Amino acid sequence: MKLKLNEFTKNTRKLVLFRGIHYYQQGRQKLDKQSDKTYYYDVAGQENNYKVVVNLGDENMIVFSSCDCPYSAAGFCKHQVASFIDIMHQQGTLDIETLENAEVMEEKTPEQPVPEGWSHADFQRLKNFDVSGYLATFSRDELIFIMLNYMQIDMKLFMYIFHHYMVEEARSKIRNVN
Ligand SMILES: [Zn+2]
Predict the structure, then answer these.
(1) Sign of torsion over alpha carbons 35, 158, 124, 75
(2) Ligand 1 centroid vs 39 CA: distance in angstroms?
(3) Total-model pTM
(4) Which member of 31, 41, 84, 111 has the greatest number of CB atoms within 10 A?
């Protein structure tokens, strides 16, 4: 779903929207750095701090947005919401009342999509599988190989790693690779 910044509510659950507004009002979001139209926020959650990355494109389109919190239900999380609102404030387009009444995501959106061929029950059981133990049996090179292959398939994963884990200098190097 391609959305402009001021339409982010369409991909946000109502409850999450209100929690995000509350977070914003409490000032839990701190802009850590900004590089062109990419914003890096630290957001104070209940127990942990989370990193949010928002990348805007032409006409304020949300090109990429992610948070490293464990929220897994549909739509943006409250940390992203607080960050979006802060950017809107920065841009001088923030109107909390309009935001509170904006169109939100339909509640009937499935909680968590299950991969094709999987039942919800099987997918839940997958969490009992010792992933880190299994990964530990791979060598570093094997892990890099798997990671690179997967990143080519899933652009979102690539963007996530790019924005959350790669340092600024490495990022500019990658930008100059042809
Ligand atoms: Zn989050």
Answers:
(1) positive
(2) 15
(3) 0.77
(4) 84
